[in-house]
Task: inverse folding
């Protein structure tokens, strides 16, 4: 591999061999210049007018592959936009490895190609420096992760891909067995059970950068297969796991060279996160945090303020920043939720639907927190916080509120153990049924809706990048949790009997965490498109447009599989 | 994690907390001793007669999990067979995390359990120190590999698991698509096409420790899913790839602390390997290499020596070492092949079926290579070399010929490009159809049976641990190879049209190599059982006895998948 993107003025006079793709040519009649691209960057090749290979070189289309040898010399006309722009290679010999047909897309960062074209010709799209950069960031994250964990005596252990269905809720991809009639392997949605069994097996500290699979209807940032940095350890605590996670994230950001706010990660309970940010994955890079207005505006004698929390936040200079249309938009958003939206603008006096109801006491409170020009955004009702959370993010983007380049990480703790689903009239595990609830056995056997868990999420810039929990390591607690979930003994046995069996033979207390590598890479590579951080991604309808997967298989194969 | 296996006399007086599984207890009435096991080893816990927890501790069954705090003290009665045998922890406090039921197998290296029991209770089998050691070796190999490749600017890049069938010959595992009728993903048999597309994509240096899948009828050392250290690079040569492989193997053996013969890896062509060792994966840790006897014994006027090669080797002191039964066994082996077995014993004179035909000239030649007591093993006929190769390995084991602890690596080059299959009357690619044949286009378009290829294998101690090749990067050569394989244009287009399309847009010359991680670990961990180097292996009939995979899926799921 040549590293020609690293050549500089200090290399002038050296004879070098460079190789790569022809980015473009400029034929000035007497002189021919070729921009040659490799993974390291672009360098200019210069052919003299009388060079015997000039005529051949002129015919080469861009994206053709060549090697060339020559001497590095200073350019007569320098190019400041190129790292190697002060120099060029004066060509002596040239080898043509492969002549290219005209490619169906431009090979440069700001390509004009549709994403469909880019995915169909992914082998060309991969040549774009921005994609190569993203893959390099992904590589750096993986290496920094392993370096960090290896130094702490973790073992990287592979768990199976051909396995049994795990009870994670989403749909499994399955693989029909040829040897056993009507039997299927399932691809893992996560290594959850296997990593817990490694703890049962006394491996103590495990990690894996693991492929996981979910046959879900895809959202923008999901892929049918995704990669998880998966960690589990024995004899640990919630503090120990989250401290490990914090140190690891810091090591990763350092390795990639991305700034991360250097205060210790802020810890917030799930409840506080909802009340202050209206989100379980708050973006803490800007303000607009919520306060309760129950004791001020909430005391006004208005029907819709009775028996409801009231939260809101002040938008400094909101009167100018927020148009009538913006406020109507917010109202629409809250209307679609189960919540009531109110705003108050402060100028010389207050305006807005509530203004005429303000008492002197309430006005005094508001005066203390608002200056002229500010807008107060308020919401009451069951989904008020969620709505405020969405408005907060809209304002982040609209008013460009993220000023600091440093990323901001939070740890969200004390998740509710269960979520109640009114449609099916039952409880579901917020994380998964192996999560350890907080409290003693008696508490855990008590009312489900009062149980919090030893679960924690790591949130960066408003994205959930990791999550984990302490696990149940005692059969009685596992039984109590199954009880709440309405899983009877026979069902439990059928679904994960071997795992319950494992709990009988001595189990260390254990816990762990998993990070989404795709999401982490997106944050560190500054992209919103998950397909830009995966070498060979699938579309949001689960297709590989390049290899045309999924596709047909032969009748013989179907017959062998009994399909 | 405690690291109590590392405590020594120098730690006496320290207060420590240890945690792990109870290996066993010795109750001496007055005193109670518990052996506590963690990943690092075993340490003795000592309870005084009057310790308030002694009675509780006495009731604990082995494999129960505890934490204990106490002071390290010198033992009164030392145990030389234990690394921590000079010391013990005098217990102050004890926490019982999990009480174990009596496990169905002994948790120690020389367990009495059947392999079926071990696999069903893999979470217990994993507690055995020998399995933990193997997984640690596997971990070390992975880390040494990455460290080596990272230092050379390789990027670790993940290729997809849900993909399209690749033409590797073996059967694919397939995954039915829920979204597309009668469509299937295939699990990759190797990342071959994707890694080549990464080279087309200009990534230049790629590696991945990749899961691969083959739905084969399993042999002893195969698993339905296996792991491959997969490497590809652009602008390279056969010498560069094999040198890289050699350096990497050396780095891996160093990291694990296993001795590897320090001479440069011996390079042998495929043909030389066959003629000298009767194997394409020779075990070079001992002699008994073959010579041709065509010019000596082969000149004797005997029918079965006409028009056939004649190879053989001298077994020093073979007359004593080889019984009549051994020689009969060899004869049976050659009879089952297409070959004729002969032997000659030298005592004062020569004996054996050929003895009476020996001429003075031939006798003189034999005298120069044999001393009294030696046996000459010879074979003629088409499969003679293969038969001799098997006899050579039998003798290795029977006569215990491997004396050197150092492992021995070879590089086998110049593989035939094609193999002819008489049954189907056609040629098959010895490696795969993307392997670059040696020679220019005209040669490559010439007779198939005369073509060698830029393919190479790495062989250690008689096992193939790695193999690779330079790849075809030019369409005309690819077409010539398809021609030899009887693949017409329409078939090529249907099977790997997207790959042929990729060859049109400028392709760097490239090549690579892949190593079997399972096999490498087996060699470095000194085991013949592939299931002892995989955390959660499958049986030779592709079952996971622990989780009972493959298993049934629900009717809903089948219906969604159109099965």
Result:
């Amino acid at each position: 591999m040549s590293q020609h993107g690293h050549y500089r003025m200090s290399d002038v006079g050296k004879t070098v061999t460079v190789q790569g793709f022809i980015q473009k040519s400029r034929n000035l009649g007497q002189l021919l210049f070729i921009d040659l691209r490799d993974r390291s960057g672009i360098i200019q090749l210069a052919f003299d007018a009388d060079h015997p290979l000039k005529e051949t070189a002129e015919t080469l289309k861009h994206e053709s592959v060549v090697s060339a040898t020559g001497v590095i010399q200073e350019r007569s006309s320098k190019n400041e936009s190129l790292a190697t722009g002060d120099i060029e290679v004066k060509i002596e010999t040239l080898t043509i490895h492969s002549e290219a047909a005209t490619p169906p897309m431009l090979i440069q960062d700001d390509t004009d190609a549709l994403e469909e074209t880019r995915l169909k010709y992914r082998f060309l799209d991969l040549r774009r420096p921005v994609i190569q950069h993203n893959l390099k960031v992904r590589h750096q994250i993986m290496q920094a992760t392993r370096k960090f964990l290896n130094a702490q005596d973790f073992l990287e252990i592979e768990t199976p891909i051909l396995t049994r269905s795990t009870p994670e809720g989403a749909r499994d991809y399955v693989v029909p067995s040829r040897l056993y009639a009507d039997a299927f392997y399932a691809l893992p949605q996560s290594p959850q059970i296997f990593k817990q069994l490694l703890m049962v097996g006394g491996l103590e500290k495990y990690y894996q950068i693991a492929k996981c699979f979910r046959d879900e209807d895809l959202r923008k940032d999901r892929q049918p297969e995704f990669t998880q940095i998966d960690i589990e350890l024995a004899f640990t605590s919630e503090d120990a796991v989250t401290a490990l996670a914090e140190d690891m994230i810091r090591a990763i950001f350092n390795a990639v060279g991305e700034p991360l706010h250097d205060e210790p990660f802020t810890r917030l309970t799930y409840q506080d996160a909802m009340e202050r940010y209206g989100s379980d994955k708050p973006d803490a890079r800007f303000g607009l945090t919520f306060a309760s207005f129950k004791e001020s505006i909430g005391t006004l004698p208005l029907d819709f303020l009775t028996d409801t929390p009231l939260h809101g936040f002040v938008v400094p200079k909101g009167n100018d920043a927020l148009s009538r249309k913006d406020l109507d938009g917010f109202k629409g958003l809250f209307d679609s939720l189960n919540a009531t939206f109110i705003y108050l603008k402060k100028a010389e006096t207050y305006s807005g639907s509530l203004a005429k109801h303000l008492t002197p006491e309430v006005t005094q409170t508001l005066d203390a927190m608002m200056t002229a020009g500010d807008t107060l955004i308020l919401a009451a009702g069951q989904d008020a916080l969620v709505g405020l959370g969405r408005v907060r993010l809209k304002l982040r983007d609209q008013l460009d509120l993220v000023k600091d380049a440093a990323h901001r990480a939070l740890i969200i703790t004390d998740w509710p153990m269960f979520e109640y689903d009114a449609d099916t009239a039952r409880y579901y595990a917020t994380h998964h049924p192996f999560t350890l609830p907080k409290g003693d056995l008696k508490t855990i056997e008590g009312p489900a809706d009062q149980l919090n868990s030893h679960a924690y999420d790591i949130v960066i810039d408003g994205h959930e990048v990791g999550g984990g929990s302490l696990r149940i390591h005692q059969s009685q607690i596992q039984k109590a949790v199954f009880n709440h979930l309405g899983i009877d003994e026979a069902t439990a046995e059928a679904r994960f009997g071997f795992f319950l069996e494992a709990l009988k033979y001595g189990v260390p207390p254990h816990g762990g965490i998993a990070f989404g590598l795709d999401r982490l890479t997106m944050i560190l590579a500054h992209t919103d498109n998950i397909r830009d951080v995966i070498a060979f991604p699938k579309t949001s309808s689960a297709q590989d447009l390049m290899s045309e997967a999924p596709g047909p298989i032969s009748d013989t194969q179907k017959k062998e599989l009994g399909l």
